[in-house]
Amino acid sequence: MKTITILIADDEAEIADLVELHLLKEGYRCLKAYDGLQALEAVQKNAVDLVILDIMMPKLDGYEVTRQIRESQHMPIIFLSAKATDLDKIAGLVRGADDYVTKPFNPMELVARVNAQLRRSFQFNASAKAGQNMLEAGGLVIYPEERSVFLYGSPVELTPKEFDILHLLARYPKKVFSSDNIFEQVWGEAHYDGTSNTVMVHIRTLRRKLGEDTNKNKWIKTVWGVGYAFNG
């Protein structure tokens, strides 16, 4: 059986050690980094399955580390941060994180979130290997197994969550999903007070990347008071 490797990146050694202790009990292999550059180096040199990442780190902050990781890799990233407002959480999720845990934190809750993200990641990879057909609507083409999107033949660079939202909507054309529906299916957890804003910000960015300001096709339709639907 493959050993699952988790990178813990936090400039506070006590926190990194605490997280490592609980993950080792679950049978995971752990790597640790204490600044952003060390975190990137660890991802580049090792087959990392999930990253637990502090935001405020020396040399490179967690946002920049996430941006660089997302240029080539799609493993789950969980922010573990003292920045605890809803706006902070939304900013973290929009910048490419899959989950956000605030400090101080319950180590067992963090382990549960790690397990949930790994489960979702492995289920997606298994589905991809089984083979999935591309989704196409006009000039928009989605390749689920490659997690790639093309618009009129040109690649569209999406974050993992933007891709997941588009893929969810495109699989069920015309079906209306509420913000809570989208959040529960894409983030894999029940809604919280900032759910609507989180989804709205992702939808807004996704629309911009799909060129909805310049192309006549409106891929994502807002159904006022209800939610969103794919208009392909």
TrEMBL record:
Keywords: DNA-binding, Phosphoprotein, Transcription, Transcription regulation, Two-component regulatory system. One of its GO terms (cellular component) is cytosol. Residues 132-232 form the OmpR/PhoB-type domain. The keyword Cytoplasm does not apply. Residues 132-232 bind DNA. The modification 4-aspartylphosphate is found at D54. It is found in: Cytoplasm. GO terms for biological process: regulation of DNA-templated transcription. It comes from Paenibacillus arenilitoris. The keyword Glycosyltransferase does not apply. Its main location: cytoplasm. It holds the Pfam family Response_reg. It comes from the Bacteria. Residues 5-118 form the Response regulatory domain. This is Response regulator transcription factor. One of its GO terms (molecular function) is transcription cis-regulatory region binding.
